[in-house]
Amino acid sequence: WTVRDAAVDSGNIAIVSTGGDAVVTFETLDIDPLLIVESEPAGERAADGLSVRLTDAGAGTVQAVVLTLESGSFAPLVIEGVCLLDVNGECDGDGVDPAGEFFVCGGASANPRSCAAPQGTTLRRGDTAGVTVLYRPRPGSADTRSARFQISSNAAQTPKYTVTVRGTPCQGECLAGAPSAMIESPEPAGVYYEGM
User: Fold this and answer.
1) How do 160-167 and 49-54 pair as beta strands?
2) At 61, phi and psi to the nearest 5?
3) Cα of 128 vs its chain's centroid, Å
4) Is 80 exceeded by the pLDDT of residue 22?
5) What is the pLDDT of residue 47?
6) Which string of DSSP letters, residue by residue, matches 7-45?
7) Is the dihedral of CA 72, 39, 111, 140 positive or negative?
8) Which of 5, 41, 121, 155 has the smallest CB count inside 10 Å?
9) What is the DSSP letter of 97?
10) Strand 121-123 relative to strand 49-54: parallel, antiparallel, unpaired?
């Protein structure tokens, strides 16, 4: 038996033996496609999607959200498309917001110029596909802006999965595109380092 679709399957198995024949009837569960979305940096989950906040991009630099889309069911997950939503909640075809600060790209991309639109794909259980959302605040921008992206699929519970990305331009020293962290290493007593 092979999963062909999300519908309930049923059948009979005939067992023939010298002690007598038997027929066993079986029925499978309704196995609906399941979309699992993970993000780096991690976001906050909601009933219909995910919200991610970015704060490490300075004006003209880029910070990325890497989305991993995974099939969590035996039924094939068909990713029909990933798009930027306009103010009316409709897919905007070019994947760039009107202000030119948010971009949605297929695969791994760190540069808006090499950003290609995500393509549809079919994922089997455990298979993954990558999508990158880039945030590049405009020079002089200081306000928090947001963009909504939609992942359309045949997932039974979330056929229109929404990812909201909120970007606030970094003020002062920025670690563009990287998580904000400082790692300090203890210096052994009596040993001093100069230069790099």
Assistant:
1) parallel
2) -100, 170
3) 10
4) yes
5) 80
6) S--EEEEEE--TT--EEEEEE-------EEEEEES--EE
7) positive
8) 5
9) -
10) unpaired
The SS3 of residue 131 is: strand
Residue type, 179: P
Burial class (CB in 10 A: 0-12, 13-18, 19+), 91: middle
When pLDDT is averaged across residues 103-112 and rounded to a whole number, the result is 89
Q: Which residue is associated with the tokens 């970015």?
A: 54
By CB atoms closer than 10 A (0-12, 13-18, 19+), residue 42 is: exposed
DSSP 158-193: -SEEEEEEEE----SS--TTS-------PPPTT---
**What count of Cα atoms within 13 Å lies in the side-chain half-sphere of residue 163?**
32
What 3-state DSSP class applies to 75?
coil
Fill in the DSSP letter of residue 55. -
Torsion sign over Cα 94, 100, 104, 109 = positive
* Beta carbons of 104 and 118 less than 8 angstroms apart: yes
More confident residue, 149 or 180: 149
